[in-house]
Specification:
The complex is a heterodimer of chains A (372) and B (424).
Chain A lengths: L2 E7 L19 E2 L3 E2 H11 L4 E6 L4 H6 L14 E5 L14 H7 L1 H6 L4 E6 L2 E3 L3 H10 L4 E7 L10 E5 L5 E6 L8 E10 H13 L5 H6 L8 E5 L4 E3 L3 H10 L3 H9 L14 E3 L4 E3 L1 E3 L4 E2 L2 E3 L2 E2 L4 E2 L4 E3 L2 E2 L4 E2 L4 E3 L1 E3 L4 E2 L4 E3 L5 E3 L9
Parallel strand pairs in A: 1-4, 1-6, 4-5, 8-12, 14-17, 15-18, 16-19, 17-20, 18-21, 19-22, 20-23, 21-24, 22-25, 23-26, 24-27, 25-28
Antiparallel strand pairs in A: 2-3, 6-11, 7-13, 8-11, 9-10
Chain B lengths: L5 E6 L20 E2 L3 E2 L2 H9 L4 E5 L5 H7 L13 E5 L14 H6 L2 H5 L5 E6 L2 E3 L3 H10 L4 E7 L9 E5 L5 E6 L8 E10 H10 L8 H11 L4 E5 L4 E3 L3 H10 L26 E3 L4 E3 L1 E3 L4 E2 L2 E3 L2 E2 L4 E2 L4 E3 L2 E2 L4 E2 L4 E3 L1 E3 L4 E2 L4 E2 L19 E3 L4 E2 L4 E2 L3 E4 L11 E2 L4 E3 L6
Parallel strand pairs in B: 1-4, 1-6, 4-5, 8-12, 14-17, 15-18, 16-19, 17-20, 18-21, 19-22, 20-23, 21-24, 22-25, 23-26, 24-27, 25-28, 26-29, 27-30, 28-31, 30-32, 31-33
Antiparallel strand pairs in B: 2-3, 6-11, 7-13, 8-11, 9-10
The chains are: A alpha/beta (372), B alpha/beta (424).
Chain lengths: 372, 424
Amino acid sequence: MRAVGIILAGGNSYRMKELSNRRAIAAMPIAGSFRSIDFSLSSMANSRIQRVAVLTQYNSRSLSAHLSSSKWWDFGRKQGGLFVFPPTVTSENSFWYRGTADALYQNLEFLRNCHEPYVVIASGDGVYKLDFNKVLEYHIAKKADITVVCKRLPPGEDVSRFGVLRMNENCRIEQFEEKPMASDANTISCGIYVVRRRQLIELIEKSAEEGRFDFVRDILIRCRGVKKIYGYKIDSYWSNIASVDAYYRTNMDFLKPEVRDYFFREYPEVHSKVEDLPPAKYNPGSEVRNSLVSAGSIINGAVENSILFKNVFVGENCVIKNSIVMNDVYLGDNVHLENCIVESRDTIRANTYYNGDDGIQIVIQSDERYIL
Amino acid sequence: MIKKEMIAMLLAGGQGSRLGVLTAGLAKPAVPFGGKYRIIDFPLSNCINSGIDTVGVLTQYRPLKLNTHIGIGIPWDLDRREGGVTVLPPYEKVGKSEWYTGTANAIYQNLEYMDRYHPDYVLILSGDHIYKMDYQVMLDYHKSHGADVTLAVRPVPQEEASRFGIVAADDQGRIREFQEKPDHPKSNLASMGIYIFSWPVLRDALIALADQEGCDFGKHVLPYCFDQGKRLCAYEFGGYWKDVGTLGSYWQANMELIDIVPEFNLYEEFWKIYTKCEFLPPQYVSRDARIYRCLIGDGTEVDGDLTSSVIGCGVRIGKGARIRDSIVMNGAVIEQGAVLDRAIVAEGARIGAGAAVGCGDPVPNRLQPQIYGDGLAIISDGASVPPRVRIGRNTAVTGCTAPGDYQDGQLASGEILDKAGVVS
């Protein structure tokens, strides 16, 4: 394949609040059976990218465990492979990754040793499906130095989390603002870039010389005038989960049939690590409406407009509404939840009531769990 | 030199003819069970959970689905550098080449495979049964009793003892007598078809009986060992064990999984049943769906009413469809308004809108009453049933059927519609 993949999965966002206490954003469970990084990984694998490096840093334990084997995404083993690179101490450098460009700089040896002419850089917190070959062909046709995948958001949507850009009629990027407090443009960068490998090495080395560490602020924005940076617009579903609201909304989008069909039934598939869990069991007393239920769950209560992740036990007379219950949660009898996100491996004692009246309530509770 | 203490030989070559059209296109061990599993997953998972990492799977009848399911054994952790799972079909040799003529003949023809691992013990299993068993415990029993052969046995109700191979043992567990389906059983311990042999004993017996036509363990090898004065012991197993060899017992075993606390518990963390998982996404239950007492696999979309049923993975159940006491296997499509009652819908089958499968009074099946009893309606894999037809009980349908195949828009109870021409 002509490109090597790099996934930047080392960052944290304060907008995730307590949800990122337990795991990296790229390891956030999505839609029952997947993790956020599976979407970028699967898009790369389905685009026949054989070699991918995932750069981790913040809370990377469960992310590394998830990526322990390349076989779930069918990455090459003899040619290529799946690599996980947390920061490491060397004779020249004992810094943590000080930014996205610094993370790339500290792994420059990996980039130098690849043969592939291009690099596809993606973030680990996007939910989408993309054929990178098409982006690469566009990049080559435009003779671009860097191609940025972008999407127009519906008007009125808050863009302060994103890189906002303005293109000319030729799709050349003329303006790029990173996380502006207010902007009148609504085309945002998806955090996916295509660049020639040698070009990237050059840009990273220069940036490091100047003591600059951020790919977007220090390279992309500063090069705007001297490099040809083009935008590749996508219309398909794309969402970034790096805030509690966005995470909630993205998961709830999977209750829509068109989103489910797009991700689960349309070629190509999204792959993830397989866990061996029995089928979901609906006991008498269960009343499930408009919800997603994952393997291993046992349901004895009412679940509406909600998403149950793997191995969730719903006790009798429970009422779960508009909520996301992450994996391995035990809900005792008579638990009422509305507008909540329940953290994984929680145990909620019987007769507990949680309601996210103004916004989503994150529930973290670990009571005693008695297993017979 | 590779050495394994115990290797397992899994007999998976049988057709399972009493499962009727369910095994027309695939071997019995490959028949789906419990929503997302196949029957062979149970002995295979038992092997790896018992610490046995070398399993030979002997195939013969229609092995394609079985082979693709097993692959190189990844789901059961049986993809190993040394050992792992190996599929062993019959093969041509210089001189005498033959299909496997019996259970022991199949093992005999694979002496070379077993020799490679220089085992001390060989475990003989069949791929037909649903159970969880730690074979290591059985091996400990075999060793502590100084046995040459250990048979796993199970107590059965005295009234049913005449249906099984009965074993009479003394209070040290030493077997004193065999009885094959006896009229007057001397004990209530039935042989489960699971044996541990000390390797030299098995080897000698197989070679001595090399010319025995249709060489079978129960009929030839065990009596031979017994007559030779070998020490045969009975290992009593008290756990759940189901032979799902008939349509009735197959349906019953599936239905038992949906009890509130099922006797056979799939949810135990420490003894997982592994399978090749083809569907990953979660299941979706619509606003209008009603589900009562069911087991549902991944990737399924439910828009209808389900009662007391076992639904596989990737199934689509349309609006207003009503399913009761039925088994629906992977990839099947039940279109809107269809009604299923005591039906078994095999993989990839399609039930047209408004069709009724399993209606009316049960009448004994005209062609094969011993197979299609129990009031079930069987729709075979890949078959399709056109909209609004009515299919009675003790029936079977194969192939892509059209409205013209049905007289007066129905298939009467007791009839078989064999469009695919697979019913003998």
